[in-house]
Specification:
The protein has about 50 residues and is an all-alpha fold. The protein has a domain of about 25 residues. Helices cover about 95% and strands about 0% of the residues. The chain is built from 2 helices and no strands. Helix 1 runs antiparallel to helix 2. The longest helix has about 35 residues. The protein starts with a helix and ends with a helix.
Length: about 50
């Protein structure tokens, strides 16, 4: 019983973190697209900064 619990808890935490990261990435990407749409120059500069 104890061994199962040891494996279950870290896995569920990892899954929750993965979901959180996906949500944050979607929100960041959406804001990023809006910035590029309104400020093309800022968008291209930001792209160079990240890549």
């Amino acid at each position: 019983g104890n061994n199962e619990n040891d494996y279950d808890v870290p896995w569920t935490v990892e899954e929750n973190l993965n979901q959180l990261v996906k949500v944050l990435e979607k929100n960041f990407f959406y804001k990023f697209l809006l910035i590029i749409k309104h400020y093309p120059n800022v968008g291209s500069r930001t792209l160079k900064g990240y890549f």
